[in-house]
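Extended Data, panel c. Modelled sequence:
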Amino acid sequence: MRPIFAGIVTPLALFACSGSSPSQATTGQDAGSGQDTGSGGEADLRHTFPAVDIEPGQEITALCQSWTIGNDEPLYVNGVRALNGGGWHHSNWVFVPETSYVGPDGTWACSERGFTQVGGGTQGGVFFAQSTQATDEEQRFARGAAIVLPAHARVIGSLHLLNVAAQLKSSAMTFELDLLQRHEVELVLNFLTITNEALVIPPRTRSLQEMTCAFPEPAHFDLHYVLPHYHGLGTSFALQAVGGTRDGAILHESAGAVGEAWGKMLEPPVPLGGATAIRVTCGYDNQRETEVRYGLGDEEMCVFLAFTSSNKKYGGLSVGNAEIGVPDPGAVPISRAPCLLLGAAGDSL
């Protein structure tokens, strides 16, 4: 996962076209039934993208894939399951109007259509983000909660592919969507995402990278889903409320390993209690001889995506350089980065 700032003016980036068409998508017999396909039922909508060939040792960061859904009415998405055959280091997916980034669906160079995550995101919103190297992952919300794909939507993903094997890998991504009918929707969710690009991970030690982002107004809403993202040196992730009635409370924490699905539906949803800020902390164990910074490949990230009950979308990004604390002997070093958090009007029924 890379920074996602749909609808917010902030940097956002992630990583011959084959002709996949909307007819490749399949729908269940009762699309929009809201059935819990996560427990073995049939998905309401399913789409498989063309497989991508990844040579041994190859890393690919400049490809996009698209799927024009062909929906004449809005879709209310209660769950997304993503499956792939391996080699998908991570990928970010947004939705845009089908009149944007026009061309054959399938696989294409992002630069051919001028696609960037910030450009696409500002025209639509966040659809799905993949955990590092996860091959089977579900982004699911509580009963009655959904994100909204408007009529005539196109889903576009920017891909980061990596083949560490000694043989060619041909791997495809499949999405399975569980939908609600409009009358079943009780709550429309909007996203909150924060990225710390000011990482300064010292060598030969464990460390913490911390960033505190102030909300434009007190956060009187709940977290419904959280997905952290870091790479192979990452060991932990934590979200903490600052201010409000839950000052100091840990809202979510994780210590997932690379290859695991880190996204989690929070049930019951976790209230922020009018927090005035949110603190993001990523832990790392860097036993290399060199300092590690933010980036792709063997560099690191500290990013999270959440879906909330707020009527706004929020995006936060580090600004300037981190202040590197000098710890007491034996203590874990902490780097603290300044943050800018912006809000914009969210989706609704």
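The CA atoms of residues 228 and 304 lie 4 Å apart. This feature is highlighted in the accompanying rendering.
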